[in-house]
Each structure stands twice: as structure tokens, then as C-alpha cells.
Design a protein that fits this description.
three-stranded antiparallel sheet, 500 residues, mainly beta
């Protein structure tokens, strides 16, 4: 028997060449550039790993899927970069997509989704005795004399106990560095989280966090407590969340601030022996309500639904939603259409229809229809997927909203087309095209990958953004012309130092 060598040292250097053309610049020229960097993975012990990176690059990662905001709260875009996805669960504290103490997209990505260069970073994750530990340190660079450089630090320690029980602490720190950073420019957050398993099916979990930001006064705390009971037939859950007005996790994510949230759900599932070809019925109900800490209710959402899953693979969801929105400050929901201050109570139908996943061509159709901010909305989202064997997969989705409000009418359309073709298990071509009629932009991301070991190899990436109609501040039109085009060629190679 050959015992594997416990030593592990992998060095992954890359070299990159790029050509970018900004058609909206005063002097539109093609910018030719080159770069190089290196990643490293080293096993400090058999259970503790160091990942280091210099001049970090994510050119081969797919771009974000666009979203249209029909509300007054922040949109959530998930992390896609492999370096931050690895062992991401260890650093997770808070409520995903709502109140996260640490959110890795704050590192290397600005508020508009643009890239902020990462100079260097390191991460240590694994186990030390009975504890799970995670340490992350990243340094970003200054951009164009506008975006300052920052240093990000994250520390995590967690201890697991029997029966799904754990307790942990998390600390995050952002420190402004360089000439653009003002004095006392930092943000620090400390958090404590725990989970206690009760019997075979129950659990109670929660977190408490506090932030420190110079110049920001007020209550800077946040927390949540939740309980879940889940067996083969029922899933019951309830949670209470509170975020104070000055809680400011700059290395985290908040969808909204200054609120109290109460939520709960009842989910059941059962399989009748013989009833119109039904495989499983899943009736359920859920509620979530948000109140500002002064008592003003911002949002209420009651959802009652049943999922009808047939033995043939077809599935239908028949739901009814009751919504409440309290608007204490008017906001623009679309160009020339605003939602005034007021209280809005409505109901809407929610239908879903899905054909069997086993089919080579599959359709999923979602329709929501009902009241919306004092008017009406119809939202239709059809998604068509097709595949041929294990080589070709395609997807076309259209998100359409037709909104009629007292202040005006508007429509939104968001088109997405995705295709992936695998020439071999190691050679693939992937494309993502998107059109947003609110920005009147069409974007394309095409990636060719020739993989070697550990996702290294040759990557060729093409990006383009085109606008159907646009006008720059000087009044020059760009109807139907390109705004930006870029081509990137990247090659990364794996040196496995201790591999025999």
C-alpha cells in the first residue's frame, strides 16, 4: 500500500495579455496591456492549508447576471470567484442575502460591479485541534486616483460539538491605505454565532454583531435568533432579526438598514398512494415582516402555496401572495415614474409550471399578477433550456414586467441567453449574452477554456457592451454602437512541487 505524501505545495503562476477599447472616451484608442501573477497552495499541516495570491486575476470567471430593481433596497449578487468560494461556508455569519457580516464581493469589486485590482492576499483555513479556523488578509490597489486602496482582514474561529451544535466568533476589518485614504479610515465588526441541536430534528441558532466606524454615531448592533424543526413530513421555522441604524458592516452586506424582521414558515410534504398521478404534494405558508425600529412597517409578505409534483416529472406551483409596503420616502421606480409616500396593501397570484428535468428540452414558466404600489403588475419569466448529451447545454430566459401605477406606466425586459459546449472534458466554450432595456445595453461574455490540472490552463475571454441608444454628457449619440470591447488571453500553469 502506497501512503500519499502529506506534503503539499502547489505553485500556479499566470501570464495575461489584454486589449480593451473604450468607444465612449474622448480619445478612443485600444489599450494593450500585459500582466502576470501567481497563486500558491501549501499544506502547513495535513489539516491546515495556506492559500496565497499575488496580483490576483479572475478573468476566466463568468460575469454577473443582470437584475432590474423594482424596489428601494439593495440588490444581491452572489460571489463567483473561485478563490473566495473555496471554504466560504467557514466565514459565513448572518442571514444570506440580507444581513451578512462578511461578504467577499466587498473585496476587489466596487459598488458598480467594476474590478478593483487585488495586489496580494493570503488565506489560512482548516483545523487546529478541536477548532476550525480561518484567516484572510487582502490588499487592494488604488484605481485612477478615484478609488482608494484598502486592506481587508477577516478572522474566524469555530468549535463544533455533537448533535449539530457549534459556537464561533468572526472579526472583520477594513483599513484605508495609500494617499487617498483619510485619517481614521477604518471599519471593524465583531460577531458571535452559535447553533444548538435539539433532539434529532430541532435546532436553535443565532448571531450577535457590532460594528465600529469613526464618525458614525448611534446603535451599531445587529442580531438574529431562529429555530427550526424538520422531519420527513414537516419543516417549521421562525426567526427574529434586528439591525440597528448605525450597524455598518463595510466588509459585509445589508439589503436594508434600521429594521426589525419577524419571519416564519410551515412546510409540509406527503405522497398520496393514488391521486391524479401525483408523486408529492408540498403545501406550505410563510411570512416575513419588516419594521423600522421606530415601529413603522416597511414590508409585509404572506405566501401561501402548494407544489404539485407529478410522477411524469411535471410540476405546478399554485400560490397566493399578500403584500404590504410602507413607503416613508418617495422613490423613482423607473424613468419618469415615482412611488409617492403611502401605505400599499395588495394581493397577487403566483404560478409556476415546469416540464420534466429529464427532457432534453425543458420549459419553466413563472407568472406573478396582482397589485403593486397602488397599481398593478404582471411579471412573466419564461426559461427554456435544451441540452444534447453531455456536450451542449443552452438556456434562454426573459424577465418581463408590465407595471401600471397612478404615477405612470412602464415595462421592463431582461433577456439572458447562455450556451456551453464541451469539446472534450478539458476543453469548453461558454457564452453569456444579456440585454437590459432599462439601460439599453447588450452585453456579451464568451470564454474558451483549455484546462489542465487544478483549473489551470489556457483561457481566452471576449467581452463587449453595446448600447442601442445612448448620449454622452457632450451630447454625442452612439446609436447601436459598441461602448466597450475587450479580449483577454490568460495562461496559468500548475507546478506540483512534491508530486512524484
Amino acid at each position: 500500500m502506497n501512503v500519499p505524501d502529506s506534503r503539499n505545495l502547489k505553485i500556479l503562476p499566470y501570464v495575461l495579455a489584454s486589449a480593451n477599447h473604450d468607444y465612449t472616451a474622448e480619445q478612443a484608442e485600444t489599450d494593450l496591456d500585459g500582466d502576470l501573477g501567481v497563486d500558491l497552495k501549501y499544506s502547513i499541516t495535513p489539516s491546515l492549508t495556506l492559500d496565497a495570491t499575488y496580483n490576483t486575476d479572475f478573468a476566466q470567471v463568468e460575469v454577473d447576471e443582470q437584475q432590474i430593481n423594482l424596489d428601494r433596497f439593495s440588490l444581491f449578487f452572489p460571489e463567483k470567484r473561485p478563490f473566495f468560494l473555496e471554504n466560504a461556508g467557514l466565514f459565513s455569519v448572518g442571514e444570506t442575502g440580507e444581513a451578512e457580516v462578511f461578504f467577499s464581493r466587498r473585496i476587489g469589486i466596487d459598488e458598480g460591479g467594476g474590478t478593483v485590482p487585488i495586489l496580494a492576499g493570503a488565506r489560512i483555513t482548516g483545523s487546529v485541534g478541536d477548532f476550525k479556523v480561518g484567516l484572510l488578509e487582502m490588499q487592494t490597489e488604488e484605481v485612477g486616483g478615484v478609488i482608494q486602496a484598502n486592506n481587508f482582514g477577516v478572522a474566524r474561529v469555530m468549535r463544533e460539538f455533537p448533535n449539530r451544535t457549534s459556537v464561533g466568533v468572526l472579526f472583520t476589518n477594513r483599513l484605508g491605505t495609500g494617499d487617498l485614504a483619510p485619517d481614521e479610515d477604518y471599519n471593524r465588526v465583531g460577531a458571535l454565532d452559535a447553533k444548538v441541536g435539539i433532539g434529532d430534528y430541532g435546532s436553535i441558532s443565532g448571531f450577535f454583531a457590532a460594528s465600529d466606524t469613526p464618525g458614525l454615531d448611534g446603535n451599531s448592533k445587529a442580531g438574529q435568533v431562529s429555530g427550526t424543526y424538520a422531519n420527513e413530513t414537516y419543516t417549521l421555522s421562525a426567526a427574529y432579526t434586528e439591525v440597528a441604524e448605525a450597524f455598518n458592516p463595510e466588509v459585509g452586506f445589508l439589503r436594508r438598514t434600521d429594521y426589525r424582521k419577524l419571519s416564519g414558515s410551515v412546510f409540509t410534504r406527503f405522497r398520496p398512494e393514488d391521486f391524479i398521478g401525483i408523486q408529492e404534494l408540498r403545501p406550505h405558508a410563510s411570512y416575513r415582516g419588516y419594521w423600522q425600529r421606530d415601529g413603522f412597517q416597511q414590508t409585509g409578505y404572506l405566501h401561501v402555496d402548494n407544489h404539485w409534483e407529478f410522477r411524469s416529472g411535471y410540476e405546478i406551483h399554485t400560490g397566493r401572495n399578500w403584500t404590504y409596503e410602507g413607503v416613508d420616502e418617495a422613490f423613482d421606480i423607473a424613468d419618469g415614474v415615482s412611488v409617492p409616500v403611502g401605505n400599499y396593501s395588495h394581493a397577487e397570484w403566483a404560478w409556476r409550471f415546469m416540464t420534466p428535468e429529464k427532457n432534453a428540452v425543458r420549459l419553466e414558466l413563472a407568472i406573478n399578477q396582482g397589485g403593486f404600489f397602488g397599481g398593478d403588475r404582471v411579471a412573466i419569466v419564461p426559461t427554456l433550456t435544451a441540452r444534447k448529451g453531455d456536450k451542449l447545454t443552452t438556456e434562454i430566459a426573459i424577465g418581463h414586467n408590465r407595471v401600471k401605477l397612478p404615477g405612470g406606466e412602464f415595462r421592463t425586459n431582461l433577456f439572458r441567453a447562455r450556451a456551453s459546449y464541451s469539446f472534450t472534458p478539458r476543453i469548453y466554450l461558454q457564452a453569456l449574452g444579456q440585454f437590459n432595456d432599462q439601460t439599453e445595453e447588450w452585453s456579451m461574455n464568451v470564454r474558451l477554456g483549455w484546462l489542465q490540472e487544478a483549473n489551470t490552463g489556457l483561457f481566452i475571454v471576449y467581452n463587449s457592451i453595446n448600447r442601442l441608444e445612448s448620449m454622452d454628457p457632450n451630447g454625442q449619440d452612439f446609436p447601436g454602437e459598441a461602448l466597450h470591447k475587450g479580449l483577454i488571453i490568460k495562461y496559468a500553469y500548475l507546478f506540483d512541487v512534491f508530486k512524484k
